[in-house]
Amino acid sequence: MTAAARRGTADAAARVRGLRKAFGAHLVLDDLDLDVACGERLAILGASGCGKSTLLRCIAGLERPDAGTIVTSGEIGVVFQEPRLFPWLDVACNVGFGARDAHERARVADVLGLVGLANAAKRLPKELSGGMAQRAALARALVRDPSLLLLDEPFAALDALRRIELRTAVREILEFTRASAILVTHDVEDALALADRVIVLAGSPAEIAFTGAVGADATRAAILAALGVVEREGHARRSAS
Ligand SMILES: Nc1ncnc2c1ncn2[C@@H]1O[C@H](COP(=O)(O)OP(=O)(O)OP(=O)(O)O)[C@@H](O)[C@H]1O
């Protein structure tokens, strides 16, 4: 099968079929299928290096699959682990940088308000805390009014309190915008707080080793078990296998 990625009017926010991606001789993903329904919030967990970001980057169009098809519908916004702001542009200009037309430029003030940065529009990135910088990156992703938000460990660089604050902000924004989302995270609490459904990738090439709905079968214990983590007396450790 040849690789193809296209925008469609699919009823799904993202539909992945037969995805293969290798880096040299290292086959990271092979024949992977995944559907994300419109409005669904999916969290992807898995051991470090198993291919979570590669999958997300393929869906984002930032990585070219070796085989398979990826169909997404609507606009995509991407937020990375680090904010990737232009240091010489103020927050409003950073957020507006990706705007393609007057309509999107007019949204800058709205999305800054949405992420809680209305009063920081004129600040340079060096004048922002880590949490504020990541909020600016989130605003930049939102300025095109994406129907699918791809979040690659967006809270990983933040301390525990900022992490919870931004996680809450993202949840409120997703509820407000009704956007679909795919969140790559190492944190089970992030997944439980933000997602409707959780998948765990495992193996090499990576397969979907677990899939479950939050509030039903995707419990904390079930996700940890799928990750190979056993909990004893309040402490979690990796299983010996
Ligand atoms: N551009 C690249 N060139 C070569 N190898 C790569 C490249 N990008 C990723 N890899 C490799 O592909 C594998 C999967 O990487 P990926 O970043 O998708 O994993 P991950 O599950 O997101 O890991 P982590 O949780 O540590 O971020 C890793 O072995 C990684 O070293």
From TrEMBL:
<feature type="domain" description="ABC transporter">
    <location>
        <begin position="14"/>
        <end position="228"/>
    </location>
</feature>
<dbReference type="InterPro" id="IPR003439">
    <property type="entry name" value="ABC_transporter-like_ATP-bd"/>
</dbReference>
<keyword id="KW-0813">Transport</keyword>
<dbReference type="InterPro" id="IPR003593">
    <property type="entry name" value="AAA+_ATPase"/>
</dbReference>
<keyword id="KW-0547">Nucleotide-binding</keyword>
<dbReference type="GO" id="GO:0005524">
    <property type="term" value="F:ATP binding"/>
</dbReference>
<dbReference type="GO" id="GO:0016887">
    <property type="term" value="F:ATP hydrolysis activity"/>
</dbReference>
<keyword id="KW-0067">ATP-binding</keyword>
<dbReference type="InterPro" id="IPR027417">
    <property type="entry name" value="P-loop_NTPase"/>
</dbReference>
<dbReference type="Pfam" id="PF00005">
    <property type="entry name" value="ABC_tran"/>
</dbReference>
<dbReference type="InterPro" id="IPR050166">
    <property type="entry name" value="ABC_transporter_ATP-bind"/>
</dbReference>
<protein>
    <submittedName>
        <fullName>Aliphatic sulfonates import ATP-binding protein SsuB</fullName>
    </submittedName>
</protein>
<dbReference type="InterPro" id="IPR017871">
    <property type="entry name" value="ABC_transporter-like_CS"/>
</dbReference>
